[in-house]
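#lab-general

N.A. 3:47 PM
ok so I finally got the sequence cleaned up, no stray characters, all 669 residues accounted for. can someone with queue access submit it? mine expired

B.Y. 3:52 PM
send it over

N.A. 3:53 PM
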Amino acid sequence: MRFRGALVATVVALFSLVAVRVTADEVAAIDDADLANAAASSGSWPAHGRTWSEQRYSPLQTLNVGNIAGLQLAWRHDTGTRRGLEATPIVVDGVMYTTTTWSVVIALDARTGAPLWRWDPKVPREIGQIACCDVVNRGVAVYRGRVFVGTLDGRLAALDAATGKPLWEVRTVPESGAYTITGAPRVMKGRVVIGNGGAEFGVRGYVSAYDWEDGELLWRTYSVPGNPADGFESPVLEEAAKTWRGEWWKLGGGGTIWDSMAYDPELDLLYVGTGNGSPWVRQLRSPGGGDNLFLSSILALDPADGRLVWHYQTTPGDTWDFTATQHIVLADLVIEGRERKVLMQAPKNGFYYVLDRKTGELVSAEAFVEVTWASGVDPETGRPREREGQDYSEGLEFVKPTFFGGHNWQPMSFNPGTGLAYIPAQEILGAYRRDPDFKPVVNEFNVGTDLNVFSAFGPSAVSGHLLAWDPVAQREVWRIPHGLPWNGGTLTTAGNLVFQGTADGRFVAYRATDGRVLWTTHTGSGVIAAPVTYALDGVQYVSVMAGWGGAFAQIGGPAALGVENGPGAILTWALPTSAPTAEEFEALITREGEDAAGERLYHVWCSRCHGSAGISTSGIPDVRGAPSKLGVGFDAIVETGISGTGMPAMGPYVDAAERALIRRYLESR
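B.Y. 4:20 PM
back already:
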């Protein structure tokens, strides 16, 4: 065990020897042609879902079912936050670009994790009061040497990919109103597309496109109609207004486009998902009913001008917060003997949809989790068959799914080889009741329901699982129970692998065909983000951001569900390249000086529990900087141990002088 700790430290050190420096001419120089050909360019992860189709599938197969058990931690970068990390990193030209809380952007050497630059947009902290689901961000877009990010307070910024220097910045939301941005931008044809959130706080949804060079607004498409007295922005919205009742515009309307997008360059269509109404309760929002277009819908837009080409509404007149902002995936499937260009989505409402992505025609829809609010989806009309009483108009109702959804924002993936989609599904019992005393309050959470009834259930009424779903047959193929809900997004590869992080802090590789667990490790924190994979110098890496948070963590809380909420970090694994040469190993283990002596002592006596270089990837505490935090208590703990925790008394093995050397080493970490 002592040798193993020293060897792991050596491997980590060797990884750091191959760090690269980047220049402005080398990084993120991808354009539309590169993005269009990303499916064939296996080494990078250039877009949010790796390709415009958002399949989160990689053709890399250096890592496969035959060798995945040998995966080891290559590097770890601590983000300095314990709040939720939801971003999908972008990896191009040996550089990883990603975001942390408060919309901070970081660039790292993708081989070693060494920081290259950091940009803090300095979001005013009071904005956190109007952020529905914590101060999270889901990532950036890269294009022609620039990094684009939306900030929580509603700005869109372009940064120099080599330095992080801001090049331009525009405000995408009104000065007044509780708008936020948490989603990642997408780029196509020189247009940077970004939506926003805030429906719970009474805003009107829209999506905007900006010129990549200077940030000029090119078009804006609203998802719900505004006040008729002000005129409608398009004939489409004038028609949509006929599906609303009352004075909906006074409560915002909702329909925010806060996450999912996909793009088909052949059809030249941009697909976006819209969110829930404002407020949730349809009787309050639109007295007398109506479908309330375009809430909880998939919109196909012309990316040149934002014009609506077709729409499909998954939940007409939505009253449960059943958004259609969940991951949108494009694929070509053989259905009933002919190839169809389809769009797939597993939104909150519990039905898995397959649509013709050229026309919006429903191909099929079946429940992928337990659904009580509807008995199914009519194949002719495409409308759900609502069950009587489940709209809770007459009082308290128990509904499945609930506003957390059968699937939420955590991305699903699709593997063309297996023909399966991999969904972070969850079963949560919802209790809905209209708030009899509802009165809208400016810039506050205005949903119209009594949220207290949900908290009465606690963890006994929730569970989650990884679901492998056949979209052609519309059936479950296999599932892996996780116990807890709110697990991470998925990644699948040509190596017949599926990767997913879990709420309880595991990161797992499964065999894609049957769900067999092939490899697992612990991250030190729950995982909700989706992993990525990339290749550099012949080495395939798998990386994920670990840090549990967001909507479920805010309401349920990590402690309530027994979730470990350790420090947030980016963790990256790879197969060991080659063993160090005898000369390299000798040089490392025979270095002179107090620092080297302390490092050796730590790895002899401490690393088997606390991890190589003080980095813990299990529930045992990470001890980097621990002496400074513990003060004089550090020596006492090392000397006498901690009863009942498994921490042994090391006094008989390391004397005071050796403890001082270990202290110095950990302080340097």
